[in-house]
Task: structure prediction
Amino acid sequence: MSDVQFAEIETPSHGALSLEYRWIHRERTDAPLLVFLHEGLGSIAMWKDWPQQLCDAGGYRGLVFSRNGYGRSTPRPKDEKWPVDFMHRQAREVLPAFLDAVGVGTEQADRVWLVGHSDGGSIALLFSAAFPDRLAGAVVIAPHLFVEDVSVESIAKTKTVYETTDLRVKLGRYHDDVDSAFWGWNDIWLNPAFRDWNLVGAVATISKPLLAIQGEDDEYGTMAQMDSIAAHVPHAKVVKLPDCGHSPHRDAPAPLGEAIVAFIGAQVQRQAA
Result:
């Protein structure tokens, strides 16, 4: 993508990082700003056209970036293992530093919406809990609040597919260092120590508007994830999409987009009233 830029940041856990990013309709300075947080094997390129389509549909400004270890951003150092709290570090160190670096400060907080998918959804939940003064609200798509057997089983199958098929070649189109991206994600999710990872306590403190969406046929998580959000964040709106797997932006883009545009629109109207 010719319009990709790089932000240089410094973090306590990861040191100096270079993160690729791109703007969508940057000129819409008064519109809601959607910050897209990709899945555990995602990147700017892996979103394909969906962020653009969503911003076009809702009249939004968009900001898409690849976390360190993914896409063209700084890769994971060779043989480094992600720690159990890697998503906490992304939410509390990397994301705030990135937003600062690209000029999205607290003065824009009333227009900032996080849109996170899978691991990115979990990071959005953690950021929402930690920095309520930096955003208007969040949309989380198939987020993880805790580790389920189905998650581990599906990720173990993906490991086999990566080792025995052309999946590595396909993913290599989206990541400069595909092994860095894949093994960073796969190793931590299959680490027995990660089975105790849990965000329920953190999400219970979320005060800003929250839309949580998941496909009923999600191969990486059950509806227990949505039910937990509903139980611990009573003001959240929960949407369960039928005939939809782990990636609603691919499996059910129309109902997903409609739900997001309606939710953000209602919140903007309420804010303006």
Remarks:
- The mean pLDDT is 96.
- The radius of gyration is 17 Å.
